Each structure stands twice: as C-alpha cells, then as structure tokens.
Amino acid sequence: MYSTDDLEYQPLPLPDRVQLEPPESLAQARGFRDYMRRRHSVREYSDRPVAEEVIAACIEAAGTAPSGANHQPWHFVAISDPAVKARIRKAAEDEERSFYAGGAGDEWLRALEPIGTGVSKPHLEVAPWLIVVFAQRWGVTHEGARYKNYYVPESVGIATGLLIAAIHHAGLVCLEHTPNPMKFLPELCGRPEHEKAVMIIPVGYPADDATVPAVAKIKKPLTEIMSVMKG
C-alpha cells in the first residue's frame, strides 16, 4: 500500500509455498473449474440472515488481490441497514427507468431480453447484505496530500473477481449489479469524492424458488477463449 516513508526494495523469501505435483495440480485445477461452473448470478434471495463475519472474511479475501504499485485502490461498503438498502433500491430503480425508457440503445435492450432484467430491483432490499465496490481514482494521505493510483480499473476488477469467488466459496450467491451512473452512492455511503462506485453486489442465500436465465448457462467453449502458442 502507499506510504509516505522512503521505502526501498527489500526481497523476502517466498512466504508461502502451495505448489503441487503435476497430477494433483491438474486435479485441483479441474476441480476448481467444475466448482466455479456451479456459481450463478441470482436475483431472487431469501431473507435468511448472513453473519457479518462471513461478509468480512469474503472482503478480506478480495483485499489480497494484486494491484498497481500495491496501492490497493479499492474500498468495500457492506450494508445490512434496511433503510439504506431501500434508498439504494429506489435510486437504482430511478436510474433504471431512464435506462429502459430510452437511455439505452435498441441493440443493448435486445441483448438484455434473454437475461430477463427490468426496472424492478427487489433483490437490493431482500438480500441481507449489499456490498458496494468503490474504486479510488486517486489516494489521499493522512495529511491530506493527494497521490496517484495506477491501473485502478484492472486492480479493482481483479479484487471484485476474488470477492465473487469468495462469496461462492462461502456457500452464498450474489449478483453483479452495475447501474450507470451511480453518483448517489458515494454520498449515501459516506465515501470521499475521489472514490467512484463501480458495482453493487447483493449477497445472501437464494430463495427457494430462485431461477437463472437459461442463456446464462451458455458459455463460450475453450476453443473460443484460449489460444496456445507453443515453442
């Protein structure tokens, strides 16, 4: 993380070694692949509570992500307050009305039809937790001095991916909700001007009657997402 101290490069012996022999490595990679195939973005939630300690552990996992210059340009606001969740839902639905009333182009709306999304966002209230992901466009020292962050979108994207994987690993479901713009969120969450909200992630248990869009199970085959260049 950023420091005003005059730090110098100081190598440490690799603290943790988790490497596996080739057969077990392949088995673990395939096992994780198969486990992540069971992850689903869910819009129907149970109101069953989730302990704050579980959410904290998932966010701690996200905080282990690599980042540009190790500045860790992210902040996560975990919200269980029903009144705050209701305000977020109302503000998000107001923005979605504009989106579906013409803010989005016809092509975008056609692309969303198989997903089944719409203006109504009850999951923003029903899910026991909302995690709002903020990207720190620049940093500020304790003395109030501004400093530059590097590769902010890439760093926050990696951290958010780890967060989603951690939520799945905890036996919970979530949804990647990205209303645009989200200018209401920094003030609502008490965050400073240099932080930009990039995602709202409802977290909890799926409702008994939870569904997912059929098209969500259609993934590109390996031949379309991987190229190999052998020496």
Automatic annotation (TrEMBL):
Record key words, sorted: Flavoprotein, FMN, Oxidoreductase
Keyword hit for Iron: no
Pfam families, alphabetized: Nitroreductase
One GO MF term: oxidoreductase activity
Span of domain Nitroreductase: 37-205
Gene3D superfamilies assigned: NADH Oxidase
Superkingdom assignment: Bacteria
InterPro entries: Nitroreductase, Nitroreductase-like, Nitroreductase/BluB
Name by which UniProt lists this protein: Nitroreductase
